[in-house]
Amino acid sequence: MTIARVKIIFHIGQHKTGSKALQSFLHLHSTALAQRGILYPVDQTMRQKVRAYQISHYRLFALLRHEALQACGQADAARHFWRKQRAICRPYDCSRAMFDAIEDERRRIGADTIVLSAEDLFDMQTAHQIDLNMDCLAAGVKILSGLAQAFQYQPVVIAYIRRQDHLLGAHYVQYVKGSSDPTIEFKTFTRAFAPRLDTHRLLACWTAEFGLDAMVVRPYECAAIPTGIVADFFECTLQQTIPSDWMAPAPERESVNATPGRDQVELIRHLHRRRWLGWPLLRRAQILDATTALSSGVAAKYGSTIAAWLSPAQRRQLLLSHAKGNAEIARQYLHRAETPLFSEALPRDDANWQPYSGLSAQDATAIIRQVSGQLFCGGNIKWIAAGALVFLSMAILVGILM
């Protein structure tokens, strides 16, 4: 008689495909999932500064990237990466140790399915990096595949993929939101980021190690997942429907991960170019909280979609360069030879598209005033110093933009 194997589901992203919403939901209902035989490992003993690390399995990515860099002979890069990530990865010093702990917990609760989610796994890069290291990706996927084999798990790899033009715009905004150097302009970013848009090539690394039968690829667009990523993941991957009494997580920055408009992005870039004693005059979180998650009063003149960055003609050219790879993804992973990977029509409205005219002093002032309103909300005196920086920022920035 064949013994049923434990299934392990690797949700690998991509970035900017609703991963935080899915992780927030799985984290919130991890106890209820365990009662259904599904382990979504949650370490309650380790508090992370960044909540995204707490609700996802970012530590698995960090451990794998460190080991992959070592396997590729990139010792200096591995040491530099580990210095930054060691504290986040505790108590684990290698991916095998993390899997040992996961298996112990699985046995304890009697689960037959494990779900691990980290969008950084897709190309072994964070959203705040630009370059692509294909050797590191191949080595990391090989290590992960070896772990699944060592524990005799039945692996399933699920990836939600986004059309390249939308992915580029969303990635750039995410880079400005969280990178150590958010001053880079869009054109420079686009040139450096281009290899990470080759979705077919990246998926091929995973397929080479795990096999085509283990791969589940879902286009990230409303036509393909009309009920959203959370419901789609439950139905497509877990073969379950979400119980009606399972509440959605309360909206907050990690679960929503709102995308600011181009004016807000430009404001962040301007303020980080003009630093005071080495510090930005306003923190990015203040701008993002006031202009995205917490405010509807200040509407950006230019939206957050790729239409704010590229013309329709530029988007068509970008998509044409990936047409062959996308067609192969549709054929290989979705068994669709005749229909395209993404159902959204190509942009055609060239005449009505207007290039971005730049951040005006008036718009910058409106956004900064919104930030000051959030800082002084409730009259808390501890924000007086921060408020002074708000008005100093406004004076300097308006002087630059005038």
Structure description:
This protein is globular. A hairpin with a 2-residue loop joins strand 6 and strand 7 (279-280). The termini are far apart. It is built from 18 helices and 7 strands. With 402 residues, the protein is of the alpha/beta class. Residues 292-300 and 378-385 have low confidence and may be disordered.
How would you summarize the topology of this molecule?
Layout (H helix, E strand, L loop, with lengths): L6 E5 L7 H10 L1 H6 L2 E2 L11 H5 L2 H14 L3 H15 L5 H15 L3 E5 L16 H17 L3 E8 L2 H15 L7 H8 L5 H12 L4 E5 L9 H8 L16 H4 L5 H12 L1 E2 L2 E2 L3 H10 L18 H10 L1 H12 L26 H15 L8 H18 L1
How would you describe this structure in keywords?
single chain, 402 residues, alpha/beta, Rossmann fold, 2 domains, five-stranded parallel sheet, two-stranded antiparallel ribbon, 18 helices, 7 strands, 7% strand, globular
Short recap of the structure:
The chain has 402 residues and is α/β, with parallel strands linked by helices.
Structure summary, number of beta strands: 7
Proportion in β-strands: 5-15%
Looking at the overall shape, the CATH architecture of the largest domain is: 3-Layer(aba) Sandwich
Large-scale geometry: globular
Overall tally of structural domains: 2
Under CATH at level 1, the class of the largest domain stands as Alpha Beta
Number of helices: 18
Mean pLDDT: 85
Low-confidence stretches: 292-300, 378-385
Q: What's the Cα radius of gyration?
A: 22 Å
| SSE pattern | EHHEHHHHEHEHHHEHHHEEHHHHH
Which strand order spans the largest sheet, edge to edge or round the barrel?
A: 2-3-1-4-5
The CATH topology of the largest domain, please? Rossmann fold
End-to-end CA span: 78 Å
Would you tell me the structural class of the helices and strands?
alpha/beta
Profile the largest sheet: 5 strands, parallel
